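ugh ok so i messed up the first submission bc i forgot one of the chains. this is the corrected input, ALL of the components this time, i swear. 746 residues overall. if the numbers dont match what u have on ur side tell me asap before i send this to the collaborators (the ones from the other lab, u know who)
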Amino acid sequence: MKKYLVLVGLFSLLLMQCNTDKNKTAEQKAKELLSQMTLEEKVGQMTQLTIEMISAYDSLTIREPHALDTAKLQNVIVNLGVGSILNVGGHTYDINHWKEIITNIEKYSQQSRLKIPVLYGIDAIHGANYTVGATLYPQQIGLAATFNPEMATKMAQLVANDVRGSGIPWNFSPVLDVARNPMWPRFWETFGEDPFLVSQMGVAMVNGYQNNNNGTVKPFAACLKHYVGYSNPQSGHDRTPAYIPERQLREIYLLPFAKAIAAGAKTIMINSSEINGEPVHASKFLLKTILRDELKFKGITVTDWEDIKNLTTRHKVAVSYKEAIALSINAGIDLAMVPLDLEFTQFLIENVKEGKIKQERIDEATLRILTLKYELGLFDQPNTPVENFKEPEQIESKKLSYELACQSITLLKNEGNVLPFSSNEKILVTGPNADYINALNGGWTHTWQGRDTSFNPEVITVVNALKNVMGNAQVSYLKGNTYTQHLPENVLLNAAQNANTVVLCLGEDTYTEKPGDINDLELDEAQQNLIKLYKKAGKKVVVVLLEGRPRTFAKTEPLCDAILYAYLPGNEGALAIADILSGKVNPSGKLPFTFPRYAGTHTTYDCKFTETLNNDFKPLGFNPLFSFGHGLSYTNFTYSNLAIANRNLSANDSISINVNVQNVGAKNGTETVLIYAADEYASITPSVKRLRAFKRIDLNSNEKKEVSFKIAVSDLAFVGLENKFIVEPGKFFITVANLQDSIFIK
Ligand code: BGC
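and heres the new structure output, hopefully the right one now
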């Protein structure tokens, strides 16, 4: 009996303990753990290494098939207590290999003194692109063209499930850089040029990743990147200096980060580059004053690849690696994507012992990292039970990927309604992207640069999709035209003998980051020659652009009968392109950026009045090839009855706007209604217009809908002389399509 009572007592104690543990917040648990940790263990938590550092090598190359190295695991995870691992050794793995990697890492972390789990992070930026069999979706630039945040949320949820299914709780996505420079090779990783659109889509993605369906799915963390001001380097080249005045920084580049932080984003990756001469990884102003004090960001800051070392090797602001570590950790870095050396932890410890970094800074960073690990449920044992590893979902995701591609692909031009094709159209398909899977997906696809085709052989290319839709007899294919070289003229003409239309699949090969740098925005001459030649031969020329940024082609654009901008539409992209060309799907994408006419001049749509002026001799004012928001349909929409409920408003009011939109064509279609506002006069030269709201609506032929918007007056704010958002009293224009009205703010 006594024994029984003791047992009951013990059991109740245990239960109480469990219950009190359960009631503790992630931060409370993290604090308790932190209090037991040595400096070495804390510093280990602040270290992130690439998987290569725990992988087996043959000579200097990572072993194929990839394998972990047990001695390295012991050293890295147990002895050094490294808190985070990232990425893949080269390419996609199947689910069994992920199971092996994640469970092994977990096994070793359980052998460390405090059994602190490892946080695994990955670049699954358009689907679980490092897991074999995962659906790949359109890249962000295409997602933005859908103007459909709800669908972006859905996509992010499915991606989170797939990535979690590989045992990984953290995704280095979304990119919230605002793409103001089309030369920049990461243009396609963004949601385009408009801060409002980027914010809306970014928040939608964060919600999708982090909203774990009321606890039915294990928690998952988003990572906003790349904080901040990365996307407008003066040279257009990746990781080169940007010069951004604080006013523009706040109004354009910071805004999406501020919104996504307010939406609860858990982590942020820092911009590898420099702004106004200061590398962001060393900037207390950006990492502390703005990020922590103003934006109240509570999560972890992670460096980008090797960017602490880069403070000495590339940026030359620190004389040694050790000094670079002190500089960046003191500026506010929590977790270092080291990722290729074991010296970081040692130097960090030395810096603390020598008083160059305060113990409190280490505690602050470690606490944030541990808190995230608790929030993500990583301390649950086992963290990812074997049965929770699951093959990527295939049915819902494929459907969604196709739908997103259809909603994104943007019809830029359709002279004489050459599209959609008539059912007896005879078509020649050619061009470097006609039969090329990689051009559909771009970078971060099975490999960093996305150039390996062996992982998704089942993905259908544009020419095959067109054959499927239009029939083999009507579609022929000419192979051999590359980006920079075309076949001899007689071969090109012979191939088109029976065709009345030539579909040219043009654009770019895949790239990301530095390898995508270019010196000229102009589309390769060889590709433009194809346009000239076929037009001269009397063919209808339909150009399909698969590319990550708008490559200029002002001289040959007038020769194109139709232009379809497909972005990087993902695995289902070719089907969507074929369905749009053949008329099965009515295009509805809108450009999320301004397509420049000339390689040497680029002005975003939200430019200043002076940039729109033509002088007496030359029309040099804002005159892009296609402006932000442009996108045609196979039907026509008319706008009428723009009505604003109250035109005299105060700072705390909302503007209620109604407008009628009618589909006046024969086909059902979808229109995105874009509401722009502009100050008439302001103390800082106002933009000619700024997007302030949007809505996608479906309209059957002849259908008319009244569309309503509510915009807070405070959302019309701009960053004033004091570098703070303000709304100045006065007149504002509200513009919707061809309609305009005005309001007065008291
Ligand atoms: C890129 C990041 C990426 C990181 C980890 C860097 O080179 O700039 O966007 O998340 O690598 O792969």
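quick check: The domain at 395-611 is CATH 3.40.50.1700 (Rossmann fold). that seems consistent at least. The CA atoms of residues 247 and 723 lie 5 Å apart.
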